[in-house]
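Re: the 552-residue chain
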Amino acid sequence: MALNVPGLVVTIIFYLLVLGIGIWASVKSKRDETRLRADHADMALLGDRKISLVVGIFTSTATWVGGTFIIGTAETVYDPTLGLIWAVMPLAATVAFIVGGMFFAEPMRDRKYVTMMDPFQIKYGNALSGLFSVAPLMSEMIWVTSTLISLGVTMSVILDLSYSVSIWISAAVAITYTLLGGLYSVAYTDVIQLILIFITSWLCVPFVFRNPSSVDITTTSFNQTFQAPWVGSLTTGIAWKWLDNFLLLSIGDLGFQDFHQRTLSASSSATAKLRCYAAAFLIPTFGIPPVLIGAVAASTDWNQTSYGSPPPFERGQSGLILPLALHHLTPPYISVVGIGAVAAAVMSSTDSALLSAASIFTSNIYKKILRPAASMNEIGWVIRISVVLVGLAGASLTFLHRGVMAFWVLGGEIAYILMFPQLVCVLFCSISNGYGAATGFLLGLFLRLLCGEPLLGLPPVIHFPGCTLEHGVYVQYAPFRTLCMLVAFATTLLVSYLASLLFNKALIPEKWDVFQVKAQTPIPAGGDVGHLNTHPASENGGASQPMIESTC
């Protein structure tokens, strides 16, 4: 197979288009920064909270409709051991945005936080929030890895371009325009990327259906033809695992900085909520094309295609099914168009993850812990350096494993088990304090590691009911991720209550109260605590005096 020169040219044109929009957006952000005399860091991280409603809807949707979303959905539908019923990503994203809009957007935006870690900084102090900040940094880095893998495998199949070259070129483009204009560049490039995803993905669908090697997908949906029915099945024995995956990919999304960065950049809490509800409606529509492509791939006699025998699943290439279907089931010029869809999706998620990681490191670690006296110019450079380092680290991880879904789930677990219960407690549970938060966080992490993780080579120490050895790897059929999350949540509240009781009853000397449980008083709702320079935090690393007004 020779290098696909026309496809390479089209890809280069797309990258230049995205880069051009990013440069234009960076010029706009600098012009607005000068005109409005806005803080450089606020402009870079949140667009000075002036991203319009329409652009905000586009960027919220585009962030979730990434390369992993498209390729992972097609892979799940095609995989004969899974099927459509397991392709929960589109519906899960809808649930995440509805729940986020109902419960999280308003309190976060009204208090004008810069990142999701700000309430932790205010309530628990610098030391503990700095420890917690490592978790979302890792989840964002893993998200970068997952999205870049999806593009690398697509280009290597369709363009016959080196996997490593595809990864590094894509990473370089995303890093460059994110560096230039911050959230402005990310948001405005997301607009063109989302339009391209919609047009190009739907353009490929009719050609996939017209290939002569496939049969009607309605006949293969519930009947064994070339493989198991592509709709899939859900038996009693695996229903808990399905629920675990669904909660991980829905509620777990609220533990990502990407979600909150979109709501925090809105001009008001009402606008932030509208963005969430609009994205909840739009995201599933982008899941339809990969579902259809996966269904056609499951309805194809691959012996009659240029791919040959055995089929992709038997070769262990289910993760490549979308690029394989485009390459072998459509004309060459259509497969090139399909690259545009994947590339646009990858860029729309990669840039968001880069900026989210940079936001947390700059605002909650560098400015609050490492260099409290840093100037705005210095902060600007730290943001840029953070974007580059996270991009390089994420790109480097792509060579450890080529499983798109594996990295996506791993990053989601960090957000779901470690960050989501802590975020709920810090925002809505007045009883929570640093003692409970630290104990719940560490216990959740420890318990999850005991459950085993094949990607990290960790065998399970805890074998929940139904745990079986399949192809040399233990599979947990119990909802172990949700159990770990609930244990972390319950532990946080229980230990917080006990610590508060012990200190307030003087059963433990007050001088040992590192997190200053007795000193905490509520912040009035709607207070502005979000500027990079104005977060209250005690200089000794303990909890600050104010805490969040909450309802738990």
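The chain has one domain: 5-394+402-548.
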